[in-house]
Design goal:
This protein has 141 residues and is α+β, with helices and mostly antiparallel strands. The protein contains six helices and five strands. The chain has a five-stranded mixed sheet.
């Protein structure tokens, strides 16, 4: 171990020097319920996509932009595939936020597709029921 390493665990560290007081009492007891959400990833070669699936109105955004902005246009259909296979009645209940990094265009599109499919299956398994999760998994495979 050399002396060039970065360490943030000393009393001189700016991360630990400020102490903030947290409110005590009834305000803490009435915390909002945890949102229903799952996080899944998809990979293809060096591209990695992370999908955050949560209860919502059917919005799908990739890196903060609508799904319609995916380029190239021909590969956009590949991203839509899991959504088209499952239909509006299943995908209309969830919002999907996607982040994608690495790889080329094609690898990113296939990583996105995998992340969407895995995310919806995980959401249904965790928050709906096992039977509908199995049904969705059968449709997607």
């Amino acid at each position: 171990f050399g002396s060039s390493g970065i360490c943030c665990s000393g009393p001189a560290s700016p991360l630990h020097s400020r102490r903030t007081s947290r409110p005590q009492g009834p305000a803490m007891a009435e915390a909002a319920p945890a949102p229903e959400r799952v996080q899944c990833f998809g990979r293809k070669k060096t591209a990695v996509a992370v999908a955050l699936v949560r209860t919502g109105s059917g919005q799908v955004r990739i890196n903060g932009c609508p799904l319609t902005t995916v380029k190239p246009d021909i590969l956009r259909v590949k991203v839509y595939e899991p959504l088209l296979l499952l239909g509006k009645e299943r995908c209309g209940k969830v919002d999907i936020r996607l982040r994608v990094k690495g790889g080329g265009f094609t690898s990113q599109v296939y990583a996105l597709r995998q992340a969407i499919a895995k995310g919806i299956v995980s959401y249904y398994q965790k928050y709906i029921d096992e039977a509908s999760k199995k049904e969705i998994k059968d449709i997607l495979t």
